């Protein structure tokens, strides 16, 4: 009884549930990407559109994310209404606020689709953004606790940097024997697909501009992915405790933006 009343036990159990949840979402997104094109075939779109007014359960039986299905159906509806392709701005605004849709029945079903989707849609985007912000604040708090001087993403943008990690350390640190100039916070589980995408679109760019860095996947990652340490990208699933402050004699702010 004492074990199950322990807060640490519940926290540990909860973290494992989150990791399982993120793994499920990752697998579902992989599957969606493989089958996405066939759902956008003209005959498929027309079939979905003719059936949209039955029930939400009929829509989900098509084996496509409810929010993505809602987008297909709304796009088709607006094409018929306006006689042409709707703008992304209009489409996104109606997905976020279904009351803007002229057809009340369609608006109701679009709303049901967006709130019943755990992977895609405006509600999921909002939750992901909030969780991401929460962990960025957590990272800043951890750095302040260790009295480490840093620049955050907003400060770097003011300085003219367009694509930056969440944190640039004004004085580099060493973590497990590896130099770290920057830190990126990821409030997600690091699976092979997402990590490969981040490497190509973010991490190597940061490495080229600012030197070696650290990525924190707060909800864990596949251990085999932590294979770029010698090349300058270190992975952790928590804020490091074994931090060594490097000599700052030659350090005067973050490295300069390349010409």
TrEMBL record:
**Which Gene Ontology terms of cellular component type are present?**
cytoplasm; nucleus
Q: Which InterPro entries match?
A: CDIN1
Pfam families in UniProt: TPD
Question: What GO terms describe the biological role, i.e. biological process, of this protein?
Answer: erythrocyte differentiation
Could you tell me the keywords of this UniProt record? Cytoplasm, Nucleus
- Could you tell me the superkingdom of the organism this chain comes from? Eukaryota
What subcellular compartments does it reside in? Answer: Cytoplasm; Nucleus
Main subcellular location: cytoplasm
Q: Which PANTHER family is this protein grouped with?
A: CDAN1-INTERACTING NUCLEASE 1 (PTHR31661:SF1), SIMILAR TO CDNA SEQUENCE BC052040 (PTHR31661)
Protein name stated in the entry? CDAN1-interacting nuclease 1
Species: Cyclopterus lumpus
